[in-house]
Amino acid sequence: MIRRHPRACEPDARYGWLARLLRQGLGFSVVGGLQLLLDWGVMMALSASGVPLPAANVAGRIAGASLGFWSNRRFTFQGHFRPPLPQLLRFLLLWSILTTASTLAVAFAAAHGGLARAWLFKPLIEALLAVISFFSSRLWVYR
């Protein structure tokens, strides 16, 4: 007679990775939504007041990143049990790459449709970058 370990038959043991992925995805989406509102609001306010769009976009992303690093580290990925400096350095590298991509895309939208088009496309651009950010954060930044 073959005896199975009782935990191997429990749904949590078989699908724990999926539950964790869904929980992290939901947490990342909530934090990301708040980040987007802050980022987008700062970018729109600054660019409407005459600050060049690339600088306004970077300022908005700095505001969002200030909220995002701590929130995702603490609540989404439970990275607060690990030393913060390596996570912060990986986060800053990822943030720099994604901010460059975001700024180029927003500037492209503005060049081909004006400031209003850049404001409109900003959330779409950030949503695409959020997919890259989620998996990079999950697998690399907060590990």
Number of helices: 4
Rounded average pLDDT: 90
* Helix proportion range: over 70%
What is the N-to-C succession of helices and strands? HHHH
How many distinct domains? 1
Sequence stretches where pLDDT stays below 50 over 5 or more residues: none
Question: Which secondary-structure class do the elements indicate?
Answer: mainly alpha
**Distance separating the two termini:** 40 Å
Residue share in β-strands = under 5%
Strand tally is 0
Give a short account of the largest sheet: none
Overall outline: elongated
Rg from alpha-carbon coordinates: 19 Å
How would you sum up this structure, described in words?
It is a single chain. 83% of the residues lie in helices and 0% in strands. It contains four helices and no strands. It has helices spanning 11-48, 53-76, 84-111, 114-141. The termini are far apart. The mean pLDDT is 90.
List keywords for this structure.
mainly alpha, 143 residues, single chain, 4 helices
What is the compact description of this entry?
With 143 residues, this protein is mostly helical. It has four helices and no strands.
Layout of helices and strands, plus pairs?
Elements: H1 11-48, H2 53-76, H3 84-111, H4 114-141
